[in-house]
Specification:
The protein is of the alpha/beta class and 252 residues long. The protein has one domain: TIM Barrel (Alpha-Beta Barrel), CATH 3.20.20. It is 49% helix and 21% strand. It has 12 helices and 9 strands. β6, α8 and β7 form a beta-alpha-beta unit. The longest helix has 22 residues. Bound molecules: guanosine-5'-monophosphate (G) (2 copies), manganese (II) ion and sodium ion.
Length: 252
């Protein structure tokens, strides 16, 4: 079978679920949110990485159905928890066609209203590539923003966005790609690039979160440079919804 056919079957069989990775405030480890990450375990038990199936779902017109399913899981897992904790937020990854999808937007609006979750508790993560690909992305993003959702640029620094372009995007924050965190202390050019990214973020008034933080020395460096949030194995791996709720309540 092709990957596309397998994705369709996986959707029909309910094989997709969602795990949640805490995002902490670097200065004190407080956790007020996290990122939803899709997982696909096939009937035979084998796991397929989103790195493999998300691009296929995007190419074969299946991504909106998949994102819709992921949003359903997020609210089934965390809806009650979020409604009871208005300062806690969850980040959901959107692909290019999701940003402009009435189906995805409708699902988000409906579920959060049903559960009593504020739009500001939902952070939409889109990659630079997503934002450039989506022709009408800017008006769709503004519409999400006007409704109170928060937007961040994922994998920041791996795309080709110019400063001028970024300054026009209606976003609240950016996620510094893991490659920069990996390069910390290596004395490589990545250090200089990161410095420029961080001063750009400060100029634009954007929140910065660093991904893939694995070592305390990386966290110390990021804190010294004014990065607010961190996500990575140093703090916590992705976990199921129940464990995530317990983690947040233990680190508020
Ligand atoms: O969770 P993991 O490290 O395996 O994710 C690998 C890649 O898949 C990352 O780039 C991540 O952004 C992407 N990804 C994970 N979950 C989702 C999702 O729910 N939707 C989309 N569009 N991408 C996701
Ligand atoms: O591309 P995106 O940032 O959306 O995806 C995050 C991916 O990074 C997830 O697949 C997650 O499992 C992975 N990840 C999160 N923290 C760490 C980390 O500390 N180290 C490594 N190697 N991967 C991580
Ligand atoms: Mn992401
Ligand atoms: Na990323």
């Amino acid at each position: 079978d092709t990957m596309g056919a397998r994705i369709r079957r996986g959707l029909a069989r309910g094989e997709f679920r969602v795990v949640y990775q805490p995002i902490v405030r670097l200065a004190d480890g407080a956790c007020l949110g996290g990122e939803a990450l899709v997982r696909w375990q096939q009937r035979d038990g084998s796991m397929i990485s989103p790195d493999r199936f998300i691009p296929v779902a995007e190419a074969e017109g299946l991504i909106e159905r998949l994102t819709d399913e992921i949003i359903e899981h997020v609210f089934a897992d965390l809806g009650k928890f979020l409604a009871a904790r208005p300062s806690v937020w969850i980040a959901i990854n959107l692909s290019a066609s999701d940003v402009e999808s009435d189906r995805v937007r409708g699902r988000l609006d409906r579920l959060r209203k049903t559960h009593g979750v504020a739009a500001a508790q939902i952070v939409l993560e889109a990659t630079e590539r997503t934002l450039i690909d989506a022709r009408r992305a800017q008006s769709s993003m503004r519409s999400f923003r006007d409704a109170g959702y928060r937007l961040t640029i994922d994998d920041f620094g791996t795309g080709y966005s110019s400063l001028a372009y970024l300054a026009t995007l209606p976003v609240d924050g950016l996620k510094l790609d893991k490659t920069f965190v990996d390069g910390i202390g290596s004395g490589s050019a990545a250090d200089d690039v990161m410095g420029h990214i961080l001063s750009l973020a400060a100029t634009l008034g954007l929140d910065v979160a660093a991904e893939g933080v694995e070592h305390q020395a990386q966290a110390d460096y990021l804190i010294a440079r004014g990065v607010t949030y961190g996500q990575g194995w140093l703090y916590a791996r992705a976990m199921d919804g129940n464990a995530f709720c317990g983690y947040v309540d233990g680190h508020l």
